[in-house]
Amino acid sequence: MGFKILAINPGSTSTKVALYDEERPSLDLTLRHTAEQIARYTNIIDQLGWRREMILTALSEHGFDIMQLSAVIGRGGLVRPIPAGVYEVNEAMRRDLTNATMEHASNLGGLLAAEIAAMAGVKAYIADPVVVDEMEDVARLSGHPDCPRKSIFHALNQKATARLHCDRIGIVYEKANLVVAHLGGGISVAAHKQGRVVDVNNALDGDGPFAPERAGSLPAGEFADLCFSGRYTRREVQKMLAGQGGLVAHLGTNSMMQVSERIAQGDEKARLVAEAMCYGISKQIGAMAAAMCGRVDAVILTGGIAHNEFVVRYIEQHCSFIAPVSVYPGENELESLVANALVVLRGTIVPKVYA
Predict the structure, then answer these.
(1) The pLDDT value given to residue 279
(2) DSSP classification of residue 66
């Protein structure tokens, strides 16, 4: 009998759960959460017990006994900056996830894993959380010492997709130079230099191209005027940056599929906004290529929006001169979590200690 692994990926409106027997998926569920259900909780951390019971109920309804588990692994949250890798969930990590300075559903991943693992008598892990930080020092400095650049990006999917691509073309990730763009509700574009992400935009609330829900880099003077205009609260301004920026602000939707439909119907504003988003992504890819002196083995597009032909075609037209463009649509985060748990269970690596 092989290792049985439960992977948990909490999002803002759903909790995705998968059971694997070694590399073989046996159950893949998306537990949806309505706006009314979410509204019952003041803070995301307050949803912990509710989501845990929802997961346990779903597993029971599908006839699975958690005592069969070998390990539980959750999506990593906004802990302190750490190098990439697999980490066992310990007391220090649970404390930091519970008291995270920024709210995000991913903060529940390690906590849910830890609680269910404790019930099953096994260990809990996270892998490559969004705060993976391998940036070179020169990439951290902005134009003011009070505003350093931060590494917050789609580390799990970026790392897994980069390794998958290297395996497919027969090169070693730790010897390759890659530009990887994760295209989702947030967009992160990273320079993977010989196994380390040496530069990347802050995809949560910082910089880079605008995205379906995020504003990305903004003209600094205009943004300062807006902040002090008295028209908005701090929370409203933060929402402009993450949640109500990007496509939502311009077009009232976070769905690139809907935007494509509007373009097909002749909506020229939708076309301009979509092209502007793709233009920003292409410029960021160029910037990451420059961070590696132009020596790039591949440009990789991944994430949900990599399914969109309009977006992919635009980026290919603007970036194929840098390196061959390869497309890996979707996020594959549950599969990536399981792969990380397996290398620990098989003794290939020793999990890192969060302290």
Answers:
(1) 98
(2) G
